[in-house]
Write a structure and sequence with these properties.
The protein is an alpha+beta fold and 400 residues long. The protein has two domains: 3-296, BirA Bifunctional Protein, domain 2, CATH 3.30.930; 309-399, Rossmann fold, CATH 3.40.50.800. The chain is 37% helix and 26% strand. It contains 14 helices and 20 strands. The strands form five sheets. It has an eight-stranded mixed beta sheet with strand order 3-7-8-15-12-11-9-10. It has a five-stranded mixed beta sheet with strand order 17-16-18-19-20, with helices on both faces. Strand 16 (309-313), helix 11 and strand 17 (336-338) form a beta-alpha-beta unit. Helix 7 (161-178) packs across helix 8. The radius of gyration is 25 Å and the shape is elongated. The structure holds zinc ion. The site of zinc ion has 5 residues, from loops.
């Protein structure tokens, strides 16, 4: 099998349409529309994200999509990022649509006085950002103009930096292993256009290097590819057919706290400056979904599958029983559909297979009379089981 053929049947745009996950429309180029089934996957990814971040001591925030021009001038985005931003004018005030979530998180940090006892503060934000990518480079969910970053901004004391970086790297392991991804690490250093002093940059680069060395991590140096405000560690996922995709990032930043005058009162009762860590794990939910679609070739694990079980009555005579099966499954919290069309069973099965539904429950006259179902997996292997046992089997699969 050639690589291109394999890539083609995994193509997330093709599968996105076939599985009814998302669509792209002329009315908003590069800004995908999510369909109900795509929303289920998004929602599950976000639920998992929220759960793991709560466990790791993060607090969630939400900051506005557009904020006044002066804020972006202060943050440096106006100078260093202007060409990728969208703008708007309201009441003779100039606003920018946020291309990054950082300034919003800083405003919340600065909204009151902070003590060293509160640090580290870890603000997580599933923040919708807009960036003006060239129209020629747009592609499905991979290259878009609006996307949700699974962002977080940590405000830490100097002697907390190493530990917090390790914690972030641990969390990244939790996420990527959940999906069966291996990953490669790159350390991106000072770019040509940068903010702040070279001494600060050198220190930040050293800090990141030390964490990677402490973990005995293999990494490559990517000279000059850091953000304008700091160096970063980038994570490149390796998918099921060996392709790599840049997703997560951890950035160490001494500049933004300076620009925004972030402070805390130290143990010595004096005013100090915290250090900021920016980080994302999925990178963007949209892009991560594109990668997952291709990684799984549309065959999502149970917890992500938009429809987990499809009930297929062989004829209208089994419709009541099929509805009963559906209700029982739904009461167990499963996502279920029923194919009640007056079509041949072979046709219905093929349809459900095209939709890559993990489990089908076929019910005919015999199954109905015996209180059973014919349970069929994606590989086409089927087994007739007592309904109760079939449901239990599905629930066990769900927990895997
Ligand atoms: Zn940030």
């Amino acid at each position: 099998m050639s690589a291109s053929f394999d890539s083609e049947k995994r193509n997330h745009r093709k599968l996105g349409t076939q599985l009814e996950l998302f669509i792209s429309m002329e009315e908003a180029p590069g800004m995908p529309f999510f369909l109900p089934k795509g929303m289920v996957i998004r929602d599950e990814l976000e639920k998992f994200w929220k759960k793991e971040h709560r466990k790791a001591g993060y607090q969630e925030i939400k900051t506005p999509i557009m904020m006044k021009q002066e804020l972006w001038e202060q943050s440096g985005h106006w100078k260093h990022y202007h060409e990728s931003m969208y703008f708007s004018n309201v009441d003779d005030q100039s606003y920018a649509i946020k291309p990054m979530n950082c300034p919003g998180a800083v405003l919340i940090y600065n909204s009151r006085r902070r003590s060293y006892r509160e640090l580290p503060i870890r603000y997580g934000e599933l923040g919708l950002v807009h960036r003006h990518e060239l129209s020629g480079s747009l592609s499905g969910l991979l290259r878009v103009r609006s996307f949700t970053q699974d962002d977080a901004h940590l405000f830490v004391l100097e002697d907390q930096v190493q530990k917090e970086l390790h914690n972030v790297l641990d969390l990244i392991d939790v996420f990527y292993s959940k999906f069966g991804f291996r990953y490669k690490i790159e350390l991106s250093t000072r770019p040509e256009e940068y903010m702040g002093s070279i001494a600060m940059w050198d220190k930040a680069e050293e800090d990141l290097k030390r964490v990677l060395q402490d973990r005995n991590a293999d990494y490559q140096i990517n000279e000059g590819d850091g953000s304008f405000y700091g160096p970063k560690i980038d994570f490149h996922l390796v998918d099921s057919i060996g392709r790599s995709w840049q997703c997560g990032t951890v950035q160490l930043d001494f500049q933004m706290p300076e620009k925004f005058n972030c402070e805390y009162i130290g143990e010595d009762n004096k005013v100090h400056r915290p250090i900021m860590i920016h980080r994302a794990i999925y990178g963007s939910i949209e892009r991560f979904m594109a990668i997952l679609i291709e990684h799984y070739e549309g065959e999502f694990p149970m917890w992500l599958a938009p429809v987990q079980v499809k009930v297929l009555p062989i004829s209208q005579a089994q419709m009541d029983y099929a509805l009963q099966v559906k209700n029982l499954l739904e009461n167990k919290g499963l996502r279920v559909e029923i194919d009640d069309r007056d079509e041949k069973i072979g046709y219905k099965i093929r349809n459900a297979q095209m939709a890559k539904t993990p489990y089908l429950m076929v019910v005919g006259k015999k199954e109905m009379e015996e209180g059973k179902v014919s349970l069929r997996n994606r590989k086409g292997i089927s087994e007739v089981l007592i309904l109760e046992n079939a449901i239990q089997f599905i629930i066990d699969e769900m927990r895997k």
